[in-house]
Design goal:
363 residues, alpha+beta, six-stranded mixed beta sheet
């Protein structure tokens, strides 16, 4: 049943930004969560609705603070990826397909665990599933922080480390867009009256590299560049999207301040905008204590659970940053997030279900 549901979910493609596809998938999740006893609320957004599902506690623990589980239903893959390059297939105990690892496997794990604990005593459970996590959750940040208020602990359904360890901290992640407006002119007949937006952008990207070079443990990736149109026209516009990763908040603040203070080299207009931001989630005693409790829950179902820091960012950055005891990586073991060889080990689906069910009933 777990694999059948995962197949159903993977075959329903949900690219970030495709509101119709995301909302159709949200319909399925809302129906499932409602059938399992949750009060489900949709948070409408132009790029796809978010879901909040509150499952009541049971027995003497019903009045305790809830556990928060964070997930997302968007993927990096466009419609058609399933048919063109990444068909669903199960081979030698490994399942392949777009989104199977990041993170529809995690959604199926949680859903199945909730089925298993339906008649057992446990704390209330709150589930937040967002529609734009793959681009930094720009429309979901306030929702995640609001729904995290008053929870006992937060858990992410993202993929774990390759050996199955959970994630105990994450680097901060910020997306910045640099936009340049120059002035078009004929590149041969009147070049001096033009202002090249592309030349200006190149100079600004070099300046960004200089800023980053002043700090240790900062990652900087220029992910997209756009601009111009014809070789005989001085380009009047150009832009670049840059992804930054930071290990600590002070470095993040300093680098972003320097980038936002960039000035034009020539008589062009320059705009620097932060598109999304997830602050660094740093190691803490609270998370260490939570990991010890999860390790005990794991032992109760015959599993050894470890934890380690992670460089990738997710919505658990927000709860960890807020000081809420947080762990991530409860999805099945696999590899290939955002890659055409994306896959999960089939046997780890049931293992993760058992672990999540033990967390819900014992933490």
């Amino acid at each position: 049943m777990i694999i059948e549901r995962l197949q159903e979910y993977v075959r329903t493609e949900t690219p970030t930004g495709d509101a119709a596809a995301l909302n159709a998938f949200a319909d399925r999740l809302a129906e499932r969560y409602g059938a399992l006893g949750a009060t489900v609320r949709r948070v409408p957004m132009p790029t796809g609705d978010h879901l909040v599902a509150d499952f009541p506690g049971r027995g003497p623990r019903a009045a305790e603070a809830p556990l928060l589980f964070l997930g997302h239903h968007d993927t990096v893959w466009p419609i058609g990826q399933l048919a063109d390059a990444m068909p669903w297939r199960e081979e030698d105990g490994v399942i392949h397909g777009p989104g199977v690892f990041d993170m529809k496997g995690g959604l199926v794990v949680l859903e199945t665990a909730l089925e298993q604990v339906a008649d057992q005593d446990h704390r209330p459970v709150r589930v937040v599933v967002v529609a734009d996590e793959e681009v930094g959750s720009p429309s979901a940040r306030s929702l995640v922080t609001a729904e995290a208020e008053g929870v006992y602990a937060a858990f992410g359904l993202e993929p774990p480390h390759p050996n199955g360890d959970l994630k105990t901290s994450r680097w901060g992640s910020t997306r910045v867009r640099i936009e340049v407006t120059g002035r078009e002119a004929h590149a041969a007949l009147d070049p001096d009256s033009g202002i090249s937006a592309i030349d200006e952008l190149v100079d600004q990207l070099i300046a960004v590299r200089r800023i980053v070079a002043e700090y240790d443990e900062v990652l900087c990736n220029v992910g997209t560049i756009t601009g111009g149109g014809r070789t005989n026209v001085v380009p009047g516009s150009a832009a670049a999207d840059i992804g930054f990763r930071f290990v600590d908040p002070s470095t993040e603040k300093a680098v972003l301040a320097a980038v936002e203070a960039l000035q034009p080299v020539r008589a062009a207009e320059l705009q620097v905008r932060v598109m999304s931001n997830r602050p660094a989630w740093q190691p803490s005693p609270a998370t260490d204590e939570l990991l010890a409790k999860v390790a005990a829950a794991g032992r109760s179902v015959g599993q050894e659970v470890g934890g380690a820091a992670a460089s990738g960012a997710a919505d658990t950055n927000l709860t960890g940053w807020l000081g809420i005891p947080t762990l991530d990586g409860l999805g099945p073991v696999g590899k290939g997030a955002h890659a055409v060889h994306e896959q999960v080990i089939a046997a780890t689906l049931a293992e993760r279900v058992a672990l999540v069910a033990a967390i819900i009933t014992t933490i």
